[in-house]
Specification:
Elements (H helix, E strand, L loop, with lengths): L1 H17 L2 H5 L8 H4 L9 E3 L3 E8 L3 E10 L7 E6 L4 E4 L10 E9 L5 E11 L6 E11 L4
Parallel strand pairs: 2-8
Antiparallel strand pairs: 1-3, 3-6, 4-7, 5-6, 7-8
Amino acid sequence: MNKLVLTTFIYLIFFAACKDKVSVYENTLGIRPASLAGLDTANYTTIQWEDTLHNFGSIIEGDSVLIKFKFKNTGKTALFILEVLPSCGCTLTDFPRNAILPGDRGIITATFTTQGHPGSVTKNIMVKTNTSNNIFHKLEFSGEVLKKKQ
């Protein structure tokens, strides 16, 4: 029985490894879905950030601040934002889920909720892309959260 299970498992791994997943999912425009674009280094592109550091100044605790990180696809293939991971649960992010074509621009937004974070703050966001000039990009924002007067 164990031999049958092992043999079946090996066959499943073999057939899964041989299947060309990229060509199955590629659409007629030649744009790969974001989940596969990160695996195909031949179709990596480049990204140029307008600014990776943002200082929001001073804000009163309890308020929220919206930060925008702008970028441009400076390569020759479609750019995909594969993952956006804020360093803390106090930051919510939004980003383009579709392909950003060569020459097009996009924005990653971060909404920072200041409640419970008085004082000087610095937060990071890690962005994973299909880019040859590094697949991981660090965005950072900082500022001063002033205690709410009682």
